[in-house]
Amino acid sequence: MIFEKRTERIIVPMFFMVALFAPLFLESNSFFVGKVTTIIILSIFVMSLDFLVGRVGLITLGHALFYGMGGYLFVILSPEYEAVNFWVYTLYICSISALIALVTGAMILRTKGVYFLMITLALSQMMFYYFFDSLEYGGGDGMFIFVRPETSIFGLSFLDLDDPQHFYYLALFSLFNTLVFFKVVLRSRFGRVVEAAKQNPDRTEALGYNIFAFRLTCYVIGSALGAYAGFLFALQFGFVNPSFFTWEMSGMALVMSILGGSGTIYGAILGTFTYEGLQYFFEHLTKEWLLFMGSAIILMVILLRKGIAGYLEKLLEK
Amino acid sequence: MQTILRTPKSAAISLGNSMTTELFFVQLINGIQYGLLLFLIASGLTLVFGVMGILNLAHGSMYMVGAYLVWYFFGVTGSFTVSAVLSALIALALGILIERVLIQRLYNRNHLDQVLLTIGMIFVFNSLQSILFGNDPYGVAVPDALSGSIPFTDNSSYPIYRIFAALICVAIAGLLYYVVSHTRLGMLIRAGESNREMVEALGVNIKVLYTTVFALGVMLAAGSGIIASPMSSIVPGMGESVLITCFVVVVIGGLGSIKGAFVGALLVGLVSTFSAVLLPSISNMIIYISMILVLLVKPQGLCAK
């Protein structure tokens, strides 16, 4: 069983069951389907960040670099008025992002702690300014995606990305796969070494493992999945702009992952839904929603020691 | 939101637009003045991190608080000095309050919880700013006594207030140096940086020390906001842009090192003012490029212990 904790075995199936059937009771193009799709896509992004921050111990404030890359790579690579194949481009985007992560990671993983945090922030800020100042890629306005990709595999097509409901299921399917993928990776021998390296780097190194290589691999994996989330987000809204790269984006994802329960992986879903749910609630309640949002975050960090997942685990585990 | 604390490109009124000796000196003064201001903000950040191990992301918000308060009191009292003193006192009280009510609960938690808490504080302060003062940009008039310009050469001059601001920054930096290296409080600060448990074991009330240091950090940030207010516009989001620049400064210098913050601030100040003239196409990026270069050579910053 890849889900080790009782809480996961209760929460995860419950979430996916509700998520699977909920849209059947809603109109296909209703507001909620779109909103929840966005939150699901964000959950993928937050989950990939939680893997890096909570499990590998790479506290980055520049994860948005890959979120933006996912969107921009698609716009840059694909022809403007022609539907390309979704799966092929997913492969392209993830591999190129992985390559970028490999090169940058090899340079920056030498730094540790706050210095790593700052250098990742610097990289994403640089990309922000690069695209913000570029005339070729639309500057601060960004660029539109005019045609969504088609999704046929060997000539068989069962998903239409222009249909919000289909897009919703694609996002949900991706979230599920991401979750299972991370769980499998973390339970493997590889994942055990990563865990050991986080807890005690010196001893793990002494056992003969090359920690740097393990961390770099994780950085590449997490970044590629972060880029995939950015790609999906760009497809859902049909545009990319430099705001994808902002440190606020990285910071918000970090907030969501800590809120959900850092290092729990499934907590990313809880954190993202809680954050977005609260924001939606407060936004409709008052113009000054930010005050309530900030206060809610402060209260939660003081009251919940290990995020929402930690709280649920305290209730549900024996 | 993504505007760097305004670099004083327009400070000098210069008719020649090539990089003449004259323009070079004007930019040099601009760079030093901007760097000194950055140092003042960054010193609080690095002090709090060095002594308490807390990465205060809301540090930029304190800068914003200082600027908005001085604008508000200036409107009420009409005197810059009075408003500056009032704002600084409120900032001090705010620092003590925040440390006592919030920060103190998180000393035994990990850094991530502190990040989350201080991001929550950014939200609260931004929202309070919008509720209390609205979202229009404001400006504070330069005090009358300091409003003139010093003629520089035949066709350029330099505003007196900027020179005054630079001198104030130097004075505060000197005071800070004196406090840290020659007083009992400074001794405790240095001791707290190197060995927390030992300081506590020797009978020092570490809680009071932490509250003092945090309040001092808030005072430095708010004080910079007060000093900067006549030179830059007071706008929503000004805290965040300053925060990021300050992080770059303290990381270049080496986190926790006040000397490092000084070196880093001058470097960032000079690099960003000169690049605005010489390399306008990458001037936004240049401080990040400098930081990456520094970290690739010295992964712990320039003045790492």
Automatic annotation (TrEMBL), chain A:
Lineage: superkingdom: Bacteria
Name of the molecule in the record: Branched-chain amino acid ABC transporter permease
Annotated membrane topology? Multi-pass membrane protein
| Residue stretches spanning the membrane | 7-26, 32-49, 56-77, 89-109, 114-132, 167-186, 207-234, 254-278, 290-312
Keyword terms, alphabetized: Cell membrane, Membrane, Plasmid, Transmembrane, Transmembrane helix
| Subcellular localization | Cell inner membrane
What is any Pfam family matched here? BPD_transp_2
